[in-house]
Design a protein that fits this description.
The structure holds two protein chains of two kinds.
Chain A: E1 15-22, H1 26-32, E2 42-50, E3 54-62, H2 68-72, E4 82-87, E5 90-96, E6 102-104, E7 107-108, E8 124-129, E9 134-137, E10 143-145, E11 150-151
Antiparallel strand pairs in A: 1-3, 1-4, 2-3, 4-5, 6-8, 7-11, 8-9, 9-10
Chain B: H1 14-29, E1 40-45, H2 51-62, E2 66-70, H3 84-92, E3 97-102, H4 107-114, E4 119-124, H5 130-144, E5 151-155, H6 162-171, E6 177-181, H7 190-199, E7 203-206, E8 218-221, H8 232-238, E9 257-259, H9 280-298
The chains are: A mainly beta, B alpha/beta.
Amino acid sequence: MKDSKKLNVSAIKDGTVIDHIPAENLFKVLSILDLKSLKSKMTFGTNMESNKLGLKAIIKVSDKYFEDDEINKIALVAPEAKLNIINNYKVIEKKVVEIPNEVVGIVKCVNPKCITNNDEIVTRFNVVEKSKVALKCHYCEKITDQEHMKIIK
Amino acid sequence: MKNKSLISINDYTKEDYIKILNLAEEFEKNPTQDILKGKVIATLFFEPSTRTRLSFESAINRLGGRVIGFTDATSSSVSKGETLNDTIKTVANYCDLIVMRHPLEGSAKYASEVSSVPVINAGDGANQHPTQTLLDLYSIRKTQKTLDNLNLFLVGDLKYGRTVHSLLMAMSHFNTTFNFISPVELKMPNEYKIYLDNLGLKYYEHTDFTDIISRADVVYMTRVQRERFSDPMEYEKTKNTYILNNSMLVNTKPNMKILHPLPRVNEINVNVDENEKAYYFTQALNGVYTRQAILASILGLK
């Protein structure tokens, strides 16, 4: 083969491809989906050119199909992410992610005086705005906006 | 409302407010009863408070209930490093209801989720203090004979004052016209103005109220604290603008009343105290009746 030096990021037989992740958020996505505890074959690519995002990242996970609730969690850091569901090398379904109505245990509350920042308590937010993400803390009622959003994991 | 915790003023509907106020009116006529006989109520004050704790304990004692608890965190196992979860779960075994104040925001909501008995929030940091709001509503209705269509002046620190925010939310059910009087640095936050806009309610913002106070039905005063100002010069320039004195009350409406959540520092001159329009000490007394109503309603006794 002439093109033998080309990096082999091959297609997967069965599983999920998550595309259009902003490059700077790849590792947040990995941690939100807790992929490190998964034993499947995985390939990550990052800092790839994208017309839409500038630099994008991509994740390919073999033999793994995400539940909607699970995958929608990444919408906070990768709102444009696209999913390709692969079966026998063919894309059998395409999905987009959607910001959920409730966000549990992913984001840190912006309020230093919130009980969740002072005791071992799982954070919980109601999503009050989806286009420019705004999260209202279930406990202290303060708003955490996109600009101040910190991912816990 | 039976067995339901009261954490935020938004936990209650307009109908719930009216029910509590009617009940408080009954308790005012007959404040000493024994309907709480055999009940044990825990007052857990993780930070000190005089008025709120004593008014709760007075409400409980006058109804024949017993009080257990602590008055600051240093005299509890919190000082040994116990988590809120453990304190609440333990204390819930010993009582029928928990009243708690805590310096951290959201602590009362969390306590209500781990407690096996109902929780009443007596203040969680700068977040919520719903029994204060209900006693404010009671005081307004009692002095104005109605809650509808009033002109409410909120004066002082409108940025950080939790009492004014909760009062605004509660009064927004009653077609209130709001006048916000504050230094520029301590203006009413936008989220509350947007909330009123969405309801189509009128509000006006001012930096001084000497010329407009004649329009007020209720003037709700709050403390302007020096430490809230980033620029101390600004504080010195504006501090006297938000002090109420007797001469300002000359042309006010006959029904007008002055409310204040207390403690007062200097924002209401002591010469106002003797004026018949001063209502803040009676307002504090109304706290007992309102809390009796809340306790009785949550314990399912009324």
